[in-house]
Amino acid sequence: APAAEQPKKEEKKKKPFADLAQPKLDMATFKRMYWNEETPVNMKYLDENYVDGEWSIWTAVYKYNNQPTMTHQTNNLVKGKFQRLETKKKHANALMYIFGHP
């Protein structure tokens, strides 16, 4: 009779950014402050704790302003992008502003 097979150990999925050193700016603290404090307090925390190379700050402008023609279409496009970034929310902060006519 064949030897009993050993059950395979399930490999743990490695977390994104697990190998990176702990940054000076704590994203959870920054997010809490962002939503609960006034802008001068947030900016002071960011200025004191942001280290270039540990984080990056980006801005984006929608390239094709003639499409879509309705604000809710743009809103759906941006929300779709945010859904794809869901696994990174512990390591990122994002805001969207959509200006236009309803």
What would you say this structure looks like, in words?
The chain contains 3 helices and no strands. It has helices at residues 27-36, 39-49, 71-84. It is flat and about 70 Å long. The mean pLDDT is 79.
Characteristics of this structure?
102 residues, mainly alpha, flat
Give a brief outline of the structure.
The protein is mainly α and 102 residues long. Helix content is 34%, strand content 0%. The mean pLDDT is 79.
The largest sheet is:
none
Mean pLDDT: 79
Shape: flat
Fraction of residues in H or I helices: 25-40%
- Beta-strand residue percentage: under 5%
Tell me the span between the first and last alpha carbons.
Answer: 73 Å
Tell me the structural class: mainly alpha
Helix count, per DSSP?
3
Task: Report low-confidence residues grouped into runs of 5 or more.
Answer: none
Tell me the number of strands.
0
Radius of gyration: 21 Å
Topology, element by element:
Blueprint: H1 27-36, H2 39-49, H3 71-84
